């Protein structure tokens, strides 16, 4: 039984968004996304898989479908299967999100 | 696009563990589990579905398989498909967890 302290897994990459895998099973991914200021996950979509974004630290603009909204700590949203989604850290601070996607694409 | 503030969804039930559904799709459940002191989720298992527990607030003892370990804020663990798992709030404080399970059983 592995217990992970999520903040201890946070790592940044000056080049691009750093995705840190926490759990990767046959059924889903559970990752931490670590954005330096200005970094982003480009808007994309995947049929058949839903994704949840939960903000641990910082603020970012999240796109789902044709909408873009700002999210902050303790806020959660879902990008349903097939809908465009992406994230941009438009702030001067770091942004850390817990991300869950199922099933694996 | 719905953005939910997770702590705003927290509700307790004096009778038993309160599970609050945040997202319920064809692919997974995403819930908040709200335990008053002494409340628990009985040890159980489900073949084919993995579950992730992430502690938002408080402390609890989590069983996975034959192990029981204490978890606190910002700690995360996984109960793989088919393994026994459960939670008990053995403390005098409230315990709040974010829980993902996929696929739906």
The first-to-last residue Cα distance of chain A is 26 Å
Helix fraction of chain A, binned, reads under 10%
Instruction: Classify the fold: give the CATH topology of chain A.
Output: Jelly Rolls
Strand arrangement across the biggest beta sheet of chain A: 2-3-10-5-8
The SSE order of chain A reads: EEEEEEEEEE
Query: Which CATH class of chain A applies here?
Result: Mainly Beta
Biggest beta sheet attributes of chain A: 5 strands, antiparallel
Give Rg of chain A in angstroms: 13 Å
Fold and architecture overview:
The structure is a homodimer of 105-residue chains. Chain A has 105 residues and is mainly beta. The first copy, chain A, has a single domain (17-102), classed as Jelly Rolls (Sandwich), CATH 2.60.120. Helices cover 0% and strands 53% of the residues of chain A. Chain A has no helices and 10 strands. Chain A has strands at residues 4-5, 18-24, 29-35, 40-44, 50-57, 60-64, 67-71, 75-79, 85-88, 95-102. In chain A, the strands form 2 sheets. The first copy, chain A, has a 5-stranded antiparallel sheet with strand order 2-3-10-5-8, with no helix packed on it. A 4-stranded antiparallel sheet of chain A has the order 4-9-6-7, with no helix packed on it. In chain A, a hairpin with a 4-residue loop joins strand 2 (18-24) and strand 3. The model of chain A has no long low-confidence stretch (mean pLDDT 97). Chains A and B meet through strand 1, strand 5, strand 7, strand 8 and strand 10 of A and strand 1, strand 5, strand 7, strand 8 and strand 10 of B.
